[in-house]
Amino acid sequence: MSEQEIFKKISIGGLTKDQLVTRLVEAGIQFNEYAKILFDHPSFSPSHTSEKVNLAKITLSDLGMGNPCSFREIIGRASALGLELCPLYCATFLRLEYLDQPEGPYLTVISAKPQHDENYPNGFYLRNFNKILWLRGYRATDFCEWPMDNEFIFLK
Fold this sequence. Notes:
Layout: E1 6-12, H1 17-26, E2 30-31, H2 33-39, E3 51-59, H3 71-80, H4 90-97, E4 107-109, E5 123-129, E6 132-138, E7 151-155
Parallel strand pairs: 2-6, 4-7
Antiparallel strand pairs: 1-3, 3-7, 4-5, 5-6
């Protein structure tokens, strides 16, 4: 596969967890229970300083993969393309920057799973469903059926 294009350039960090959650609520963002669990994890700890990051967006077909596939395989293929995992809190900053997300596929922000427990959520995804913006936590087992139009976000 060829060089990945930059999907968005955003700033992450510079806000506390509480400030972030307050901004999300003020923007009308909806959460599921998994998202709330992730907010409470020690890994959800935004940097005190703001930094600019480049985000790449890819699909399973971009990676030459089909279903089912493992979360580990997705990370491995993306890594071979020079893409990196996002910090867990990156999804919250992307959600605030992407309030004009069109309705359509899930946008899964790939980060390291904060806890090695199959019942614990892996990370976040963004979705616009019925004109409601969501930041949802998700779980991925060893082999998951990902929607084929699902898009994955990595650091570039």
